Fold:
Amino acid sequence: MDAAEFRKRGKEMVDYVADYLEKIEKRQVFPDVEPGYLRPLIAQCAPQDPESFEDVFKDIEKIIMPGVTHWHSPYFFAYFPAASSFPALLADMLCGGIGCVGFSWAASPACTELETVMLDWLGKMVNLPEEFLAGKDGKGGGVIQGSASEATLIALLAARTKTIRQVQSEKPELTEAEIMGRLVAYASDQFCATLGTTPCCSFDKLLELGPICNKENIWMHIDAAYAGSAFICPEFRHLLNGVEFADSFNFNPHKWLLVNFDCSAMWVKKRSDLIGAFKLEPLYLQHHHQESGLVTDYRHWQIPLGRRFRSLKLWFVLRMYGVKGLQEHIRKHIRLSHQFEHLVLQDERFEICAKVVLGLVCFRLKGSNELNEALLKSINGAKKIHLVPCHLREKFVLRFAICSRTVESTHIEFAWQHISQLATDLLKTWVQNHHQQ
Ligand SMILES: *Cc1c(COP(=O)(O)O)cnc(C)c1O
Structure:
């Protein structure tokens, strides 16, 4: 493919994606395929001779789409949202076009500098304490990781190294291995300090945890993967109070801030803690400058060496939506979750299982776990909407997460009527079976 054909095909692909997203509502949200569906549809080996773009393109609808779960369908209410927007898609195209690998400042200065500035923008949007920002000569700063799980691992490794060095300076007779064997990490069954847990979007009390961590010299990492985006709205910012006690903080714009996967934003108060843990400096990667808010070598802030120009997505989205546009998006989702909550509360057969704070509603039929498992099975079997469950204490609970950028009040009404009808059908047979037993 030469540049002339790329121009033509690129436009076709943009049209295809625009059509896909514009008409996604018409597709069944969850596919009909069985495990192993794809292999028989595809050649056993890569082709020896090149194929045409048309050959590949026509297989998208034939082979790929039948096996796609449509995360951006307004009937998708599973997991948590996967962010997507047109500005982010365009930025990702540019990222692919530039195709740099920005592991150090010199490897592509714009890639590094835009990321530092975007993480400062984002940090200011959620009103993070100044110490987390890079500025021109700050000790802190932000970095884009691939996922919240990576951010947690990075925090853990940095905390470990920092603690080992600290103990070594006090007790030089101990070896690293001896110290390592005595380290303790404190966690709940959700792992670290969390704002917006995955099962039910509950919030740890940072104002209680934070002072203890600081007093005991324990690294505090806060995972706000989903909920973090809501903190750009002043009315939800109080949920982040206590972040001033943390050493590191993370949330995923790729969940709820309209920036396509992957974009997990992580901040630290002391960049030296990360660099101390990860710095590797072979000769071919050495440049003569000092780490500061101006010059950052992001390879010391992450596990991989290579990294994409992901901050372009943030830059496009933050500029083209503006803070106000993004706040509107968050507020709309939260309005819709409360709409669903009210519908559930009006039906005496159901109960709400956790406080609805943001865009997630946990609910169930009053009754046994088996009954609720059967309800979920019938909902997901009908494939008109898609949900996933969770366990809250011993209870089997259905999670209804507001996900799609384009979901509206009418979709919520439809989803509720559908669930309610399936519950009616289920309860009829359930009662009959129960009587027969
Ligand atoms: C979604 C989620 C994660 C995982 O996010 P990844 O970016 O996929 O690793 C971690 N923690 C919480 C609280 C989440 O909601």
Remarks:
- Residues 122 and 241 are 17 Å apart (CA to CA).
